[in-house]
Amino acid sequence: MSLTTDPTAVLTTSDTTATEPVGAPAFTRIAAGLALVAFPLLFTAGVATSPPQASDSTADYVASLGADPSLTALSAGLLHYSWVAFALGVLATIGLVRGRRGRVVVPVAAILTSFSAIQLSGLLLSDWFTGAVARAMPLEAAATLTEGVWADPWVTTWQLSGQFVGFVGIPLVIAALARAGVVSWWLLAAPVVGFAGFFVPVPGAIVVGMFVSSAPMILVGVRLIRRASARVRREELAAS
After folding, report:
1. Which tens digit of pLDDT belongs to each residue from 146-204?
2. Transmembrane region positions (predicted)?
3. Cα-Cα-Cα-Cα dihedral of 114, 195, 155, 75, to 10°?
């Protein structure tokens, strides 16, 4: 009997098509969604465990990193992996766009902020070196060395490109997704309110503010996880 007349062969082919839609793999969306959900939690924990410093001076900053190596490593590690999670997860937001709106701005925002997050995650390595330098030489010399490194044009560019995601990147992604109709424009209020924590003279205000400013990524992550269902992927395939 030929393949075209074999009822078993026809039944198997039809069943595979119905249960395993072609498109973005469910694992990809779930992994990206979980990464975005983890980002605010890791980021806030990293901020909360940042070694306390007496002032914003370079000397006090260096001294704070050298005073408690374990705390420095914990904070730097949490912050590093928070930005790794963000860099990986934010690229998947491109797949949330369904119509014409947002087809340009969402990919641009996602790629820019992902690159910036990669830059920022790499900068965290300096915390281990700065802490080690603070313990290996006099504080004044360690501060001078640190300032010399920061003044290098390559490091300055690295810092600026990394800081972009912290101050502009998240609102940019939210605005792009709102333009595409994926989330509400009201979510832009979260970064504004969150950054106000820098100016509130209350203990813990900065930690709370950083969580509020990054919390919208949890909602975006949940949207990605929901889009991993076979039904949604079949609908996307049919609409393409």
Report:
1. 999 999 999 999 889 888 887 889 999 999 999 999 999 999 999 988 888 878 777 78
2. 30-48, 78-97, 104-125, 160-178, 183-200, 206-225
3. -80
- What is the CA angle 122-126-129, rounded to 5? 140
d(CA 10, CA 152): 67
Give the start-to-end residue ranges of the domains of the chain: 25-239
Reduced to 3 states (helix: H, G, I; strand: E, B; else coil), residue 204 is: coil
Distances (CA, A) of 214 to 115, 203, 218: 17, 19, 8
Q: What is the pTM of this model?
A: 0.84
Estimate the share of the chain in helix, then strand, then coil, as percent rounded to the nearest 5. Answer: 80, 0, 20
For range 125-154, the mean pLDDT: 93
User: What are the C-alpha distances in Å from 118 to residues 25, 81, 138, 164?
Assistant: 24, 10, 32, 11
Yes or no: say if 83 and 45 are a contact pair by the CB < 8 Å rule.
no
Angle of helix 58-67 relative to helix 125-136, nearest 10 degrees, comes to: 90
Predicted confidence at residue 164, as pLDDT, reads 85
